[in-house]
Amino acid sequence: MSVPILEVRGLKVSRGGVPVLDISELTVQAGEFLSLIGPNGTGKSTLLLGLAGLVKRNAGEIRFHGRAITNGSDMLEYRRHLAMVFQEPLLFDATVYDNVASGLKIRGMRRSHIRPLVEEHLELFGVAHLSSRSARKISGGEAQRTSLARAFATNPELVLLDEPFVSLDPPTREAIIDDLGRVMQTRRTTVVMATHDRMDALRMSNRIAFMEGGGIVQVGPPSEVMHQPVNQTVAAFVGIETMLEGEVRDSSAGVLVVDINGRSIAAAGSFTPGERVMCLVRPEHVMIFPAGSSTESSARNRFTGTVRSVQSFGLIHRLEIDCGFLLIAHVTSLAMEDLHLKQGMTVNAAFKATSVHVIRSSHS
Amino acid sequence: MKMRNLSLVWILALCLAALVAGSPAEAAQKNLILATTTSTQDTGLLDVLIPIFEKKTGYFVKTIAVGSGQAMAMGSKGEADVLLVHSSAAEKKFMAEGNGVSRKLVMHNDFIIVGPRADPAGIRGMKSAAEAMKQIADKGAVFTSRGDNSGTHAKEKDLWKASGLNPEGQKYYQQTGLGMGQTLNVSAEKKTYTLTDRGTYLALKKNLGLDILVEGDAILLNVYHVIDVNPAKFPKVNAPAGKAFADFMVSKEAQAIITTFGVDKYGSPLFFPDAGKPEYE
Amino acid sequence: MELIIEGIRKAIWLLFTLDPEVLGITWLSLKVSGTATFISLFIGISLGTVVALTRFPGRRLVVSLINTGMGVPPVVVGLFVTIFLWRNGPLGLFELLYTPTAIIIAQAVIATPIVAGISLASIQKLPEALRLQILALGATRAQMIWMLIKEARLPLLAAVMAGFGGVISEVGASIMVGGNIKGYTRVLTTATVMETGKGNFDIAIALGVILLIFTFCINAILTGIQQRERPR
Q: What CATH number does domain B110-220 carry, 3.40.50.300, 3.40.50.720, 2.60.40.10, 3.40.190.10?
C-alpha cells in the first residue's frame, strides 16, 4: 500500500484545561471517504479542526503524504492542499462568484486563471445562474452549494466536511449529496466528513470511524460498524435495539450458546463458557411468523412471544415482542397486513445465529 | 489585487495626513500669538488691524480671544507673545511679576450699564455707577455678570466693592461665564442689567433691545494696554514679533484706524486712541 | 421670528453666492475633520481589530478603556491636548498649539475610541467559525485579518461616519486647541459660536445650516448602511 495521505498519531487537544480530543491513531488513504460518526459533543468537529491545524495541539503528530506538519510555515502550505466546509455556509458578503473565487485569490492566482476555474465549479455545484448574486440573498441550499464550490475550486487533495448537510431540508440535501458524489467520483478527492447521521455515513463512506468521548472507539467499513459494533454506545448509534445480557453456556461446535433469563440464544463468536456477554440483534434481522405455523426457517433462534406494542414509522413498523426477554423487530407494512399483526397477538420470532453479534458485557 | 489597491489608499491617506500635519510647523518663527479680550474681536477691530500688521511685517498673528484674565494667565506662562487687555489692576500685577517687557497705553472707551428699556430698578441717568449697582440689588432686579475673569468682570467687581455689596450667591446676581457678546444676548433675553464695554454694545445694539442707563462715571473708564511678554523669563516667546505688534498698536497708522473704526457703521467711534498720552490713574 | 427669517435669508444668500469666508471655513472644517477621521480610522480599526482577535492579559482593561474613551467629553480631550501642546508642555517643541494640526490631533483623539469601539464590536460580532473558514481557505494571518475587516465593512463605514459626525460638530476642543483664528483655525462650529457672540445671527445661522446639511448627509448615509445590513 502506498503512503497514506494523512496519518494522525497521539493527537491531544484540550479546551480550558479539559481534554476534548485524544486520538491515538488514525490513517486516511488517498481517495477514500472517511466518515466520523457519533453523538454530538464527542469531538468530531474538533478532530476535523485538528486535521486542518485550526486548533492548538497539546501533543501529537499529523503527517501529510508522510511528512510531519509542524505549526510553522509548512502549516500554511499544508492548508493550501485542503479545504473545509462547515455546517454553516460561512460565505463572505460578496457575490457568489467572488465567494467561489476567494480561495484562489488567497493563493495569489491571476484573474484570468481564476475565471475558468470559478465558472467550472459554479457549474459543477449548480449555482452558475447565481454567479452575480449577493451571497446574502440566496437560499440555504444555494449557500451550501456555493460553499462547496468554493472548497473544491482550489482543487484540494483533502476535503474536510463538518456536518455540511445538517441544516438543509431533505430534498435539497439529497440533491446536494448527489452533486457532491459526482464531483468526488471524478476527482478522487479524499474526504473526511463529520456527521451524526448514520445513513449519510453509510451510503457515502468507504470507512466509518466512531467517536466517543474525544476518542475513536471503532474504525472500519460501514457494514462492519453497522453489524459488529464494539460496544453498546456504537450499537445503539448504528440502530441496534435489542441488547441482551447473558452468560456463555457453551462454545463447542463453533457456535456460542448464551443463556438469557433462562432462555438460550445461539450466536457466532469466540467466547469461553462463563463469560458475561451482550447479544446484539439488528431489528431488521428478526423475522416474524404467525403463531403455530410450521414454516421451517433455517434460523437457529426461534421464540414464541406476545406483541407488546406496535409503532408505525410509515413503511416500517416497530414491534416489541416479549418472549421472556424483549426483542425488537422491524416489519414492513406489507408483512403487517399479511400476518394481521396486532398488539397482544402471539407470534413466532426467529433470527439467525450469524445475525447475533456478541460483545463482552460492559458490566463484567 | 484589490487588497493591494486598498492598502495603497491607506498609505496615501496617511502620507496626506502627515503632510497636512507637518506643513504649518515650518513657519514657526513667523507665528505670533496674541492673547486678547473678546471685546477687541467681537467689535471687529482686530479684523481690520491684523491684516495690515501681517502685511507690513510678514508675521502670522494667531489671535486667541479670551477674557483679559485668561489672556494674562497665558502671558504669565509664556504661552502668548503679546497681550491686548483691559484690566489695569491685574496688568500692574502682571508687570510687577516681571512677566512683561513693556506696557503701552493703546486706547480707551468706556463701560456702560445697560438694561431693559422699562428699567424696573429705575437707575436711568444716575451719575454714580456704584450706587446704580446697589439700587439694582435693592430693587430686586437681576444683574447679569460675565463671571469669567475678563477685564469687564474685573471692572464689575470694582463697582460692587464701591457699592459695599457682595453679590456672590445673591438672588439678584447671575453669572454667564461667557464672552461679552453672548452675555449681552443673555441679558437682553432675560431682561436684566449688565455691565458692558461701549464698543461691543454698539456693535450688537441692533438686536438687543437694551438701553444705556448709566454712563460717564469716571470709574467706568475702560483702558486698553498692549503688553509684550518677557522673553527673559520665557525663552520660547517670540519677542521680536511681540515687540513689533506692540509698536504697531501705538503707531500712527493703527491709531488713525482706531479713531475712525465703527463710525461708518454705528455713527460714533467704538474706541478712542490714547497712544503717547499719560496714564489715566 | 423676523430675526430667524432674516437669518435664513442671509444664510441662503451666503451659500448661493459662495461667500469666500464661509467657503473657507467650510473647506477647513472638512479638511480638518476629514484628516482627523482618517487618522482615527487607521489607529481605531487597527486597535479594534487587534483587541477583537487576540487574547492577552489585561484585554478586559483595554476594552473598558476603549468604551470609556467613546464617551469622554471633547472639552476634556481639548484640555489635555492643550496642556500637552503648550510651548512649555511636553510637546511644546513642535509649536502645534493654535494650528489646524492641533485641532486634527484633538479630533483624532476624540474619534479614535469611537472607531476602535465600533470596530471591536463589529469584528467580534462576526461568527467565530468565519475565522477558521478563512484560514482553512489557505489564508495567511494578514489575509485573514484583511478579509475580516472587509466582511465588517458596513459597520466599519458606520464607525467612520460616527467618527466624522462626532468631530465635525464638536466645538469645545476645537476652540481650545485651535483658538478660532480667522482664516486659519476657524471651523464651522467655532465660527458659529463666535458669530453668535458678535450678534451676527445671520452668519451664525448660515454656518449652522451648513453644519446641519453635513450632519443630515452623514445620518442619511448611516441610515442607509443600517438598512442594508441584514442579519446573518
A: 3.40.190.10
